[in-house]
Specification:
This protein is α+β, with helices and mostly antiparallel strands. It folds into 5 domains: about 5-135, HPT domain (Four Helix Bundle (Hemerythrin (Met), subunit A)), CATH 1.20.120.160; about 145-300, Alpha-Beta Plaits (2-Layer Sandwich), CATH 3.30.70.60; about 315-375; about 380-555, 2-Layer Sandwich (Heat Shock Protein 90), CATH 3.30.565.10; about 560-695, CheA-289, Domain 4 (OB fold (Dihydrolipoamide Acetyltransferase, E2P)), CATH 2.40.50.180. About 45% of the residues lie in helices and about 20% in strands. The protein has 23 helices and 22 strands. The strands form 6 sheets. A 6-stranded mixed sheet has the order 14-18-19-17-16-15. Strands 6-8-9-11-10 form a 5-stranded mixed sheet. Strands 2-3-1-4 form a 4-stranded antiparallel sheet. Strand 16 (about 600-605) and strand 17 (about 605-615) form a beta hairpin. The protein is flat. The chain starts with a helix and ends with a helix.
Amino acid sequence: MAIDELIQVFLEESEDEIRELEAGLIKLEEDQSDEGTINRVFRAAHTIKGSAGLVGFDEVSNFTHAIENILDRIRSRDLKITKNLISSLLSSVDLLKRMIGASSEGGQLDKNEIDNATLTLKHFTGAAALSEAPAKAKARREHQAEERIFSITMRFRPDILATGQDPVMLIRELADNGTIVECSAFTEGVPDFYHLNPTTCYTWWDVKLCTNRPLSDIQNIFLFVVDENDITIEDISDTFKQGVDLSLAEKPIGEILVEKGIVRADDVRDALRDHKKTGDALVEKGKASREIVEKMALAQSQSRKIAKSVTIRVDTDKLDKLVNLVGEMVISVARMSQLASEVDHSSISRPLQGASASLERISRELQEQVMRVRMVPVEGTFNRFRRIVRDLSFEIGKKIDLRMSGTETELDKNVIEQIGDPLKHMIRNSIDHGIEPPEERRRMGKPPEGTIWLKAFQREGNIYIEISDDGKGIDKKKVLEKAIERGLADPGRSYADKEIFEMLFAPGLSTAEKVGELSGRGVGMDVVRKNIEDLHGTVEILSEDGKGSTFRIKLPLTLAIIDGMMVRVGGEVLTIPLSVIDKSVRPARADVKTVEGKGELVDIRGDYIPLVRIYDLFHIPSEKKDPTEALVVVLQSTDSRFGVLVDDVLGQTQAVIKSIDKNFKKIEGTSGATILGNGRVSLILDVHGIERMAFS
């Protein structure tokens, strides 16, 4: 693997590890006794340190080592967790991020800044050392004085070198933690020169290490390779001192037999050519007895092995390409189904339709599986906000507890990538203008610590995300005054709570008394809504005076393939997402009314809703302009309903969403296009865009 590829792998993996570090440190501030979190953050720092050294980012590796030392002291309970310590570690993680970014671009940060941060970290370890209890220090010295012998067997995946790992580096790290009394490299798997692949690891190692370090320290050396390779660590102190080498049980049978002098190395190589188990081949050739081979096999089966991971990392570009190919297949299957339905000859038609139905079922299952691969938990996005809540609460002097639920809920990766900024804006609003200061909360009979809930759950084929707080709620009177002042509301009219909350999404509307560094409840909410609607989602606001507010976001599971309804308007076939369709009706003449100032209305079971003539919006010649002869498809927007007039409803389809913005002008009221079974292009209607075009 080229160094540039190694660096790219490191950059991708370090992002995950830094997120783990940051989230874990904030969690430790809340629960200092969580050993699982302590181990996770230590492992994250250890991984970054080792990987940075591997790609030549020595400065990053050295600085991470200083962070790792702090975490090691925390893990051994030698260092007490304080807010000051966590703040320093979080600042160090911020610096580490910048260092990685600078190193990847071939630059470096101010050395004085790095040195000062390192000294700050060393201050904590120094202070801890001075305050140690004598008894504890004595116990540690006694523990360290006891030397043990560890047998470490390392069998690596053949492609370990291509993943950026270096077995020799691991052996060197073992040597740094003790004395290697024996190191055997087994090279029988190395092919001749002409068949040698320089990126393949053919060798495995057996190391005997004499050390006063605990087993956990030795295990930590292999933290970032243990999941994908076969690593065995065994304490053989007693048996090794007695002259017994237990590592023989971990060696290949052929190697053991050669070392015991039972067979020659040539015999083993000759046996391997038969493509049989080595032991069986040696018995058949009369080179070893069945009894001895079975004894060695029993020793091998009793060796301890670390479970292997079944997960792999896949480049997102490859995944996107796979999704596109599945989308193209869905289109082809639809085309085939249509052709099968048009065949008149019964002897051909029936089997062809059967095969088409089977292929359609398989393609849907394949599509669902591929979609699942694209799904990622919201936990990673949610955890980013722990740091935001912590820092802002300190900055403005408020006590805030962030609680999360439903973090295992999964969303399409593209949705996950785009939802972060809207969520951050709403959380900052809750912190700045939702949660009251501690003194005010006490006067209101509330606990001094405010709470923000971040929830995710799935319902009816959609994902819901809620940001709630137990603050003072939205001041509806102030919102209405600001809206009237900006000409967004009529002074003489009374408005329902829902209508007032909708005004918060107007561009530039703010209820803040002064401009702050954070945000005001309402400032930027128009951008929040636009970003969410771009994801084909909706957002609504709920609030109760003195009890708090809730922002509820509704999102589709995926943006790649949706279930849609095909409708015909004149000579055009349009696609409407099923998720926004309420019902379709053919109204009676008495159900259609024209109201001055409101336009056409349709009576849908006692509820009058606006009627939108699609052919007028898109300038399409229509065959049916009389609503009583056409159909009205009722669409559900964020908080309102309206009907669109169409000539006919053609049926349901799986719409593979294709962007048209890159090659054509953006068409208002649409969110993309799809290809139908007959090869024609169908525009996908955007309910929010249609609403803006018709009623703005």
